[in-house]
Amino acid sequence: MKKFIIIFLVALLIMSGVRNNFKKNQSIRIPDSAIRFRVLANSNSPRDQKIKEDVKNKMQEELYNLLKNSKNINEARGLIKNNMNNFDSLLSNEMKDVNYSYKIDYGMHEFPEKVYKGITYDAGMYESLLVTLGSGKGDNWWCVLFPPLCLLEAEETTETSEVEYKSFIKELIEKYF
After folding, report:
1. Can you give the pLDDT of all 177 residues of the chain as single tens digits?
2. What confidence score (pLDDT) does residue 105 get?
3. What are the DSSP calls for 65-98, one per residue?
4. How many CA atoms lie within 13 A of 96 on its CB side?
5. What are the CB-based long-range contacts (under 8 Å, 24+) for 41-47?
6. CA gap 150, 57 in Å, rounded
7. Contact between 113 and 121 (Cβ < 8 Å)
8. Contacts for 92-101 with beta carbons within 8 Å, 24 or more apart?
9. Can you give the residue ranges of every domain in the chain?
10. Closest Cα to residue 43, out of 165, 149, 133?
């Protein structure tokens, strides 16, 4: 009986690995009904990357508070457009000690192909809120604002400090039985 259980668990692990490899080769096009948020760093220097992270965190928090109750893309668009001056004020305050400028724009912007967690996101023109810091030549950060994928991430990181423990074996049993 023990041999059967061990063989069964090994088979499940192998099938899980094959399934994960299958997912890794997917290519995804963000739907037209999505709005992205992107921050381009001035350069790849540690200082400029830190500034990008700080700006991203401030903007993400502001966007979460603004969009958390939006019901559809048109409502989200309206909220973003109507708050561009607020975003500009927030960025002005965040960038007051930085020796280069910034630009914030809402519209259609070019995005390069991106591989994240084994999934390829296609390059293309996407509706987005774009913050360019300085020359915008550094690494960028982006996420999907609507539906609020990155906003959910912001909520999770700001509202909880509890550690959640999971059992891989328990998840396998629950998944397949």
Report:
1. 666 566 665 555 565 554 444 444 566 666 767 899 999 999 999 999 999 999 999 999 999 999 988 889 999 999 999 999 999 999 999 999 999 999 999 999 998 888 767 777 888 899 999 999 999 999 999 888 887 766 554 444 444 444 444 555 555 456 545
2. 97
3. HHHTT--SHHHHHHHHHHTHHHHHHHHHHHTTT-
4. 5
5. 41/133, 41/134, 41/136, 41/137, 41/138, 41/139, 41/140, 42/100, 42/133, 42/134, 42/135, 42/136, 42/137, 42/138, 43/134, 43/135, 43/137, 43/138, 44/138, 44/139, 45/138
6. 11
7. yes
8. 94/54, 94/55, 94/58, 95/51, 95/55, 95/133, 98/51, 98/133, 98/134, 100/42, 100/133, 100/134, 100/135, 101/134
9. 30-159
10. 133
Query: Which residue's entry shows tokens 């409502």?
Result: 75
CA distance 59 to 95: 12
Note the pLDDT of residue 162. Answer: 47
Tokens standing for residue 109: 């912007």
